[in-house]
Structure formats: structure tokens, C-alpha cells
Amino acid sequence: MTITHASQTTQFGSEHAADAALSIHDVTVAYHRRPVLWDLDLDIPRGVLASIIGPNGAGKSTMIKACLDLIPRISGNVRILGEPYRQIRGKVGYVPQRETVDWEFPVSALDVTCMGLYRKIGWFRSIRRPHREKAREALDRVGLADFAHRQISQLSGGQQQRVFLARALVQEADIYFMDEPFASVDVATEQAILELLRTMRQEGRTVVVVHHDLQTAQNYFDWVVLLNTRLVASGPMKETFTSENLRRTYGGRLTLLEEAGRALSQAQAGLPHEE
Amino acid sequence: MSRSASLPPRYAHRTLWTLLAIFLSPLAAYADPVFFESKLQKILFLQDYNTRIVVIGTSILGAACGLSGTFLLLRKRALMGDVLSHTMLPGVVLAFLLGTTFGYEKTLPLLLLGAAIAAGLGSLSVLMLRRISVLGDETAMAIVLSFFFGIGTVLLSIAQESATGHQAGLESFIYGKTASLTRGDVQWILLGSLFSLGLVLLLFKEFRMLCFDEEFTGCQGRPVVGLDAALFAVVIVTTLVGLQAVGLILIIALLVIPPAAARFWTDQLHHTTAVAATIGALGCWSGVTISALAPRLPAGALIVLSTAFLFLISLLFGSRRGLIGRLIRWSDTRASVGKDHLLRAFYELSESHLKWIRLEDLAGLRSWTPRQLQRLLKRARKRGEVIRGNANTWKLTDRGHLLAAHRTRNHRLWELYLIRYAHLATSHVDRAADRIEHVLGPELVHHLEQELDQRPPYAPESPHPILNPEESR
Amino acid sequence: MIGYVPPWFDGYTEWLVAIAVLVAMTCAIPGSFLLVRRESMMGDAISHAVLPGIAIGFLISGSRNREWMFLGAAISGIATAILAQSLRVIGRVERGAALGIVFTTLFALGLVLIVQSADHVDLDPSCVLYGQIELAPLDTITLAGYEIPRALPILGVVFLAVLLATLFLWKELLITSFDSELAQSQGIPPQVIHQILMVLVAVTCVAAFESVGSILVVALLVAPAASARLLTDRLVTLVPLSAFLGGLAAMIGTLAALTLPGHFQTEIEDVNIAGSIAIVCGLMVVLAAIGSPRRGLIVRYLNRIRLQLRIAVEDLIGALYRIEIEKRSPETPIKTQLLQMGALTSPGLRSNFWLGLAQWHAHRRGLLTPSEPPSLTPAGLQLGAQLVRTHRLWESYLADHTALPTNHLHDTAMDLEHFTAPALSKALEEIAPTDPIDPHGRAIPAPTQPPLPDSESTPPDR
Questions:
Q1: Which pTM was predicted?
Q2: Terminus-to-terminus CA distance in chain A, angstroms?
Q3: Which of B318, B336, B367 finishes a domain?
Q4: Are the beta carbons of A230 and C403 separated by less than 8 Å?
Q5: How many domains does chain C have?
Q6: Which residues are CB-neighbours of A37 under 8 A, at least 6 positions away?
Q7: Which chain B residue is nearest to residue C266, measuring alpha carbons?
Q8: pLDDT of C70-101, one tens digit each?
Q9: Which domain holds residue B413?
Q10: Prior bond of C405 cis (ω within 30°)
Q11: A–C interface: beta-carbon pairs under 8 A
């Protein structure tokens, strides 16, 4: 029986936990038709601090973006808190990488934080005092109360990152996706962010973080997803973060797969390709 | 909109009035009495009905363009505005040809409708061509622009050959006919501007989020494509009604220049839109005024030039990012750095129990040229920080000593911090601390003190040996 | 406008075509570099911004003196580039906006200057926009005993100058366009090369200015280069190809403008030539995007169909091989067998049409016997073994290297096996497990020995 099982997996969730915070099923993602994530299949339970770890170009950010429908998936589907993303947008928070926006933009830290509330405020209505109060509280929680009216280009890198966190906080989401929040921030910010993440976990929220630092990963998080264009391993930190798994993650790229992927993408685009 | 505490609104007002005054000063050249009484007065005080119409119309247009241009600029789609206005030509001419064929003569709404459809088609073509990745965005825009304009040119030559004299109206869409705007035209301008203003106000916070962080906008369940379409609609409508005023080649200037100029004055988005609208209106108003004085010159070009002049003023004198302000701030920093260095040199020398300090010793401590040093000393004496003894010896006053102790303290706190936390080598901290200490705010110093467990008011021991002038000689 | 349709070779049309072709070829050369640098709108900006240069040239020389025009244009070309750059650096204005500010201001300045100087020089603002190529053949000079249009020798000189500059600076232009930091490290100042390119664009714009005007120059700068880019991937062929395509478009555009309208409507005999050339240029891009033999939509569509057929054939052969090995009843119809196997999960075989097509194609390639139901020929057996082997090797590889659940391995391997070129397959062999069992616990067929010459199945259409 070599072929039959393919039909089993077409309906969702046969082998996925029903109460997972995030279930990714068979997701494949391609940029310009070149696959960068292959057949991703994993669960992350509720109430954990999860980290996504892998070498550069492993598709860590891509995974998050695919979960949030920011980039199209070629195949597969994603359930967040048991629902498709579209239906529970309000319960999902997202902290993008700092580089994705123009920090010269004429807005203050408070303005940016308020953006997290726009969905609640609704179309066409303006921002009022209670909203600003709420945003100010969030800024206070990340230690930026004094900087609320600074234009964002006048903040340090770590402070900019914390403004993004504040923006996510006001959303009061149940699950957060953060893209490299620890990248190039100072020690104080790193500690502040970590503190915040732990508080969020205590409040029962789930946080999925793209992380690049192997040294700190073990202490910061309690769930890990090891990624290198393919899922290498996913599970509780203690059992999964083994040297064997790390070797499989970082020990060389899956060159054969990459090559096959290139051939596949070129052919599917109908483009000629040299061999 | 939040009344921001950091930037008082009077800032914008004051600067704008100053700007106005500067800008109007060249008009003084025309101030020979006869001339003033006859023409200028008529124009400035809008006594002439025609002038009134034109001035009001173009000023409203300028404000609307500045407003919608702000978001176009922040969305980094400035060139797309250029493409849109160019693609309108075939629409206008085709609508004209159809109109004359079916006997509707030249009606403005019909032409505007044609232009709007063509602009929509143009933006769709750009979107399609952009998907060919080897070509890139700019090529897609250039191809669409020239293709549509080519069609427009051909249609125009057909219109010129077939129609009988009516086509003169078409030229006004290309070059603008500022001086002869009619009441009807101004009504259209008013309508279009109101539409843009309304849509921008309604979607202000959505546009802000879209321009700042497209990804986040998508995550918030706001349709990025839809918002972009709304923004384009705003731009297309303002461009449409503006075509007759300045022409389709130069309308992009009104969309781009005022917002770019406004960025030199403010860091707040709602102020940026307000200032951009003001600059747009001001540019149009002065351009029209000048063109009324020199009716032979093309008014559209004059409007652009006066708006560009306002941009130049903003670039130089802008209160937020203007070049001159930045230059002054830069030289201020340099002066205070020199002062700090001098005081610290005095303090360090006086630590080795020198009361009166010789010029050579001071010069030996840093790479000052004699002239720089003299200038620094002169300034310090004016501030009462040092006094001059006989020959070439100098001494800190009491006030100077306090200041110097404070500066030295900051410096050494940094050095300690750098050694302890940044693991810099002892021999390197001096220079590293030099670079950062001048930007220390009081709250940061306070943090440092807590961090290092140091109490004021004394300066801690220097963590590295200080060059002793006695030994070094 | 010329009021009648001149017959061909009447001493007018051929000169018109010659001028248009030369203009287009001149534009295409610097245009190609703008394209690969992704700065096409810079061409638009410069073509507008040369206007004040030309006007000042007029004012100084008091006539349509060409040296002054070219000098003024070159200066304003550089000025555009430098001003836009410094607005970006000093004023922190975004690139597109900086260009917009600079070129509109300069264009407005040019318009004012031209109107101002209209008393001294005969220059019509509408000529600025659409050019007056129609009048060019009428303005003649006598050169070496022949009477030729004045524009022709000037265009010839500019064309040669641009060509020579490009050849001379070929590798510098190439390296700075590709990687300016690399160029810098090699001692080639990218800024200087960029300025030189801007001068070339500006000079070209002036040369083209009288013929096609300031807006349609962009069509000639960008569209031929874009069409050529869709046809070739190499800069060496891109430049001459775009010059050729530019010339072609100019010729077609000119002749179309003069003759086509006469076919439709009697009172309109010709239309604006510059506009017609721009339209032809735009259509050429569309044509190239659809019909290019490398990247065209048609070719890509055909390739996809061919790929689908190949996958269908391979899936069919693979399934039949598995049937053959597992000795299912060979008398039942092929579709029933495949259905029993679940092989029809292969997307290529789901429809009867594709199944039939695959069967026909496999038969034609000698992989299937003509009997009913068909069975595999020796060549088919060999291909099947090879496919199944590749499939199961992939499964082993995936199981070793990824955390893909065992029941997902098959689908992925199903995709991959069709894209395993001989070299890749060899690499896969090298790391194949020593015990020939796949993750599902089935045997991996031994490598086929020796491969038949016509069983070059992957890919067969090559």
C-alpha cells in the first residue's frame, strides 16, 4: 500500500491536537515560485513561549508570515487557536522586524502604539482619549512612558523595538507572533522584553518568537521549532533542543532538496533551466 | 488628532508667516506707486472678478494637492502620480472625439470621466507589467507612461485635423489655462478638493497605518489593496480637477513638492498634512499672482516655480530638518564639546596640584592648535570659568572648577561603565567616552550613578593614568 | 502636419524613416543601461530636465546653435542627477519624490525661459512635447554634393559618440550597473560612471528632442530595451538587440503614421509620427512579453503543459511498475487497476483526458505494449524501476534529514521524483542507505543496469 494514505491527510487535523495554539498543516511557501518552506507540519500548544530557530534563510520569518496570510501559501492550511486566521484576527498580535518600516515616518511613539487599537476603534472613527490612555499604559509597561511624544526616529533601536511591543500589547491578543524582537537591541531592552514575554505567558497567552541566538534560546523559551527550509524538529525545549537536532538544523544545508526545488520551481513557471 | 505636547502649534504658524513675508519680498520690486495702485492692488486684494476666481480656485487646488500628495509621498509612490497624470491624455482626447462625434460638444464632465478611466487603466497596466520581474517597477511605469502619452498624442493629431477649432480646449489639459479658469472650472476644483479632503479625513488613521507599516495593516484586517485604491482615487480626483489649472505634466509638482517641503517643518503627520496644504495653497496663490503681473509667461510653470521656491526655503530654514537649523545645532555641539574638553584638561592638570597652568601643558593634553586653544580660552574667560594670570598661565575660577569637576565626573563614569560592561580595554576608554559623554542627559547620568554605585559630587579616580605634564617633559 | 500622403521613396518618406530609425537606435543604447540599473524613470526625468539647458543654449547663442544646445543639455542632465542625489542625501527625500521635485522644477524653468526667449528664437512649446519630426526632412543642407536633411549628420555624430562611449566604457558600465560596491573596490568610481551615463542620456535626449519631443523620448529609451530584455539574458546581446528593435519600431511607427489612417477614414491622412512610434514601442513590449521564446507567456504555457504530460506519463509508468511487481490481475482495465492502487491521486491522471493522453504518449515512446489492457515493455519496466527507486531514495533522504511525518513522505517524494535530473540522481545515489529498504519498509529497486539509450526519461523532452 504505497499510495493510499495521501487521501487521508486531505482533511485537516487527523493528527493535530484540537486545542493547539497554532497548527500548521502541510504548508509550502514559495518566493517567486522558489520554495522556501516545504511541507511544514507542526503544533504549538497554548500558553508557551515558543521559539523558531534555524540558520539564515531557513524560512523562519516566512513561517510566521505564512501563518498570518502575509504571503501566499502554495499549499496547506493553518489554524490559530483552532480557527483559520481570517476569523480570529482580533486575537492575534504581530510584531514585525524593525527594518520593515521607515523610521523617519512622521509619527510619534504614541501614534504607533495607537495603531494597535485601530481595529477596535473601527473604520472612519478618530482616536479618542481612552484609546490614548490605553496606549500610554502599554508604553509604560515597556518602560517608554516618558518617550510617548518623541518622533520615532529619535528613539534608539531597542526603544523602537519596544514601541512595536507596546503596539502589540494594546491589541490584547491571545497569541503573538514576533519576528526577531531580540535582534540588535541593548542588554536592558533584551531583559525588559524577556520580562514582558514571561508576564504574557503567566497571563495565559502564547508567544511565538523568531530567535537567532542559540545561547539564550534554552533559558528564554520552553518550546522550540527547529527549521531549515524543512521542519527538523518541534517540541518542548528540553527534549528537542538536543545537539543531534541542532546538528541536523545547522549542519549544512539540504543541498539536494534545494536543487530539486530549483528545478521544480523553474519548470512549474514554464521557464527553461540549465542542469 | 492628538494635540502633541512636544511640538507647539505656534511653531508652524510663526514659521509660515515668516515664510510668507520672505516670499512676498520680491514683489516689492514692482512697488512703484503707479503700478501698485493700478495693478498689484487689484490683484493682491482680489478686486478683479476674474483674478478672484483664479486665485481662489488654484489656492484650493494647491491645498488639496498638498493634502493628498502627503500620503502619496509617504507611501513612496510619488512617480506613480506622474504616470497617472500622463495616462490621462488619451482619455481626455478620446472623450473629446466621442463627444464631438455624438454631438455633445466639449463638456467638461465627459472629458474628466475619460481621463479618470484612462488613469485607472494606466494604473492597472503598471500593476500587470510590474509582475515581469526582470523589468522592474520603474521600467513598467516608464513604458505605461510613454505608451499612453503616445496614444494621446496620436489622438490629439486626429482631433486637430478632424474637428473645427474646438480642440483648443484640449491644449488646456496639457499646459493648463490658469489665467482663464472659469467659474465652472473652479466649481469642479472645489468639488474634487472636497472629495479628497473628505476621504482623507475619514480614512486618516487608516492611511497613516498603511503608509507606515503595510504588513501590520494587513494583519489588522484592513484591506491593503482597497486602501491603496482609495488613496489612488484621492490622487486621481485631485489630479483630474487640477489638469486644467496647471496641466498634466506639471501637476505632479503640486502633489510632490508641498509635502516634501512640509517634512522640513514638522515630525507629526497631521501637522505635515496641514503644512503641505498651506504650502500648496501659498505656492499656487503666489504663482497666480506673479503670472497676473507677467501675463505672457505660462502660469502653470510659474506656479511650479513658486512652489519649488517655497521648497527651497523649507529645505534651508525648516524648523525641524532644515539645513541651517541642522548646521547651527551641529556647530553648537562642536562648541560645547570643545568647552568640555578644555575644562577637563584644566581639571586633570589641577589634580596633579598645579595651580596656574601653562599654555603648553594644556596644549600637550589634546591635539589643539595654538589658535584653537586661544579661542577656547577666550570664550571660557568670557563665561567666567577661567582667569588669566601672568605670562601665559591660566587658572580655573571656583565656578569653573565646579563645572570642570562635573564634566570630568561624567567622563569618568562613562569610562568605568565601558570598562565594566562593554569590556573595553583601559587604554581605549578615554576616546570612546569622549565620543558619547557629550550627549549625556541628566537621566542617563543618574542611571550611570546607580549602576556604578557612585555618589556625587566628586569625580571618581580616573581608571587610566593621566598624562602628567611634569613627567612627560 | 503634412497635408498629403507621400508615395514611398519620394525624397521625403525615406529621409523621415532614416531620421526616426537613427533617433531610436541612439536612444536604445543608454536606455539599456537605465533598464538594467532599474532607473528607467531617470530617463523620464532627464528628458524633461534638459529643457532649461536647451533654452539657455538658445539664449546664449541666439540661434538654434547645436553646440550650445548639447552643452546646456549635458549640464542640466548632470544637474538633475546630482540635485536628485543631494536631495536624497542632504534633505532625506525619498528617491522618486526627489526626481519629481527636480525635473518638474527644471521643466517649468525651461518653459518659462522658452516663452521668454520666443521673441529671439523660433521655438514652439508644443514642439517640446511631441517634437516635429514631420518637418525634419524639409530642413536640408548640402553635404558632399548631396542634399540631405540637416538632422541626419548631427544624429549620426551623436549615435557614433554614444556608441563609442559605450564600447569604451563597456566593462565599467557593466560592473557599476551590477554591483557598485564591487566597482568601488576595483577602483572604478561608480558615481563618475553614473554621471557619464546621465550625460549620455542627456545628449541623446537633445538629439531626439526635435524629433520626438521630451515625453516620448522615454518610450524610445525604455521600451526597446525592455523588449530586448525579455528576449535575452545577456547585456552583450541586450544593447545591440534593443538598438535593432528600437530602429524597427521607429520604422514601423513612422510608416504606420503616414499610411494607416488613409485606410480608415478619408479626411485624416496622417497622424502624429512620434506618438505612433511610442505606441509601436509599447506594443512591442507586450508582444515580447507574450511571444518571447525564453520568457514569453506562450512558451511558458506550453512548457507547463509538456511538464504536466511528462509527469502524467511518469506517474502512469510508476504505478504500472508497482502493479507489475506486486502482480495484480493484469486482465482488468488499466483505469480500474490504477483506481485500486490509489494511483489516481496523481493530479495528472485524475481526468480521463490526461490518462488517455499519458497512455498514448507512453505507447508512442515504446514504454507500453499495444495490448489491451496494456503492460509495460522492457523499456517501460526499466523506467518504472528507475522512477520507483528515485522515489524511495527521496523518501529515505527526507526521513533522514527532516521531521516530516512518515505518512507525508510519499507526497513530497512524488513531487520530487519528476525533477531529479541525472546529476542530482547521482548525488542521491551516493548518500543512499546501504540497506535497500525505504522508510515504509519496502525494498528500493536496484539501480537499472545498463540504462537504455531511449530511457532518458528525466526529462524526456530535452
A1: 0.82
A2: 34
A3: B318
A4: yes
A5: 2
A6: A27, A28, A29, A59, A62, A63, A66, A229
A7: B162
A8: 788 888 888 888 898 889 888 888 888 999 99
A9: 328-472
A10: no
A11: 102
